[in-house]
Give the backbone structure.
Amino acid sequence: MSRAVNQSEDEAMDLLRRFGKAFNRADVEGILACVTEDFVWVQATGPDAPDGQIVRGAEEVRRALAARAKVVRDVRFSETEVHHAPGRIIGTFRATGSYVADGTAYDVRGVDIYTVSDGLIASKDSYWKQIV
C-alpha cells in the first residue's frame, strides 16, 4: 500500500466522487472502474487481526460486496467530506442501513484512508464507529 502518487486535488476529488457514487449505488463494475487491478481494501471488521478483513483484487472485491449484501441492505453514505493530502486522500462519512437478518437499523460514522496510483484507487483502509 505504499504506492501513493501525488495527484491534483481536482483529480482526487473527481475520482472519489465517482467511486462514492458507485459505492452508494452498489455498482460493482463502477467501483472496479475506479481501482487498480491489485486494489487492497482493508475492511473495518473481519477475522484478520489486527486489520479486520483484507480484500485484494477485483474478484475478492466482488465476493466481499456480494457477501455484504447478504448481511446489510439499503446502505447509504452521506455527510461525506474528502480531504486531499500528499500521497493520501482521507474521506469521512456517515453510513446508514439495516441488517438483513432482522431489519435492525444502523447509523455510524466512519473514515476511509485511500492511496492512489496512476489515477486509480490503490487501497482503501476503512474505519467505522462500533456502536454497542
